[in-house]
Amino acid sequence: MTIPASQLERVFAEVEAATQEMVDFTAEMIRIPTVNPPGDAYVECAQLIGERLEAFDFAVDYPVAEGRAEHTPTHPRMNVVGLRQGHSLRPLVHLNGHFDVVPAGAGWTVDPFGGLVRDGRIYGRGSSDMKAGITAAMYAAEAIRRAGISLHGSVEISGTVDEESGGFAGMAWLAEQGRVSASRTDAVIITEPTDTDRLYIGHRGVYWFEVTTRGRIAHGSMPFLGTNAIEHMGVILDDIRRRLMPALQARTTAVPVKPDGARHATLNINGIAGGQPVDGIQTPCVADICRAIFDRRFLAEEGFEATRAEIVELLERAARETPELVYELRDLMVVHPVRTPDGASVVASLERSVQQVLGRPVMLAASPGTYDHKHVDRIAGVPNCVAYGPGILDLAHQPDEYCTIDDLVQSTKVLAMSILELTHSL
After folding, report:
1. What is the pLDDT of residues 255-265, one digit of tens each?
2. 3-state SS string over 123-187?
């Protein structure tokens, strides 16, 4: 539908007027160190978001992922959901953002949880990924209210947990409980950082797996009497480097994944441990166990079965060619690729909104990493789902992460226009 120019002008003016509020609220969220793992300060951040949603005339509740293994007395998995119902419940557009963040890591030149605002940027862990996105969703809806515009349909906004570790106590749990579902939800916008002029319509697949090699302990001065599990893991890693990596680099998806390097199949070694703790008291022993965690991102054209079979074949070859090499393979997580269907209303609306606000066409792309789209699509059964929000994706999980104030304001306008379209203003 066409939004009257007078309505857009009023809404955009309200977004501009709220700029300092948006900056301050984003900085306030950043100062709550919602680090995952282990899941710190979730309750505090959920309540901060909930209190602001209540002030914006949302009915708010705090769904807790009771029964999930991640939910513990010391680290409760509390989500927050706000609903502002219009003339009718439907159509209902749901905007989602996760408020958990990865550990800060080293290399920062500013306080990662200081919420520093400087030179038009909001710095801090989670600024782009993705607390600015939560702010944009909330203030997009609020700008419509402040502009005095009534909606036919409804707006729902959620802040969820654990996306960085799979989202199973967050968006997946909301979908399992029916809070986000095809029976009540018409469109979902996940406000992940998309560089403001990109629209993510899906993501590659994920296969996380663990390989364990087992050896035989012996005295370190007589290693020939033992079998070194670390050496055998080295055989596997060398095979991956020499044979598998070149094969993966040669494969390219037709899906428009950005950045361009992510159009290839990839594999990363997330972690490795073997033998004695390096910082412990040393004893002369041959390592009898070594474990490594791998992150394989597979293309829609590859599929999961072929992806796993390729790993099994590599491990079997290593075992055949190396005396005494014994391995175990354990699947940790599998996420199949998802893609928004052609002709989805949420895509068409955001295309128009980006063109209106930024004066240039949106770039349709697929995300290099997964996000909660997978749960919206496969558990909630809502294919009309995309990711769009403020922030630079390449800065996610990096030191000195930031979101520009201009990106925050512009993406808030885009979201507000699409809320008006998708819920039909009266």
Report:
1. 888 888 899 99
2. ECCCHHHHHHHHHHHHHHHHHHHHCCCCECCEEEEEEECCHHHCCCCCHHHHHHCCCCCCCCCCE
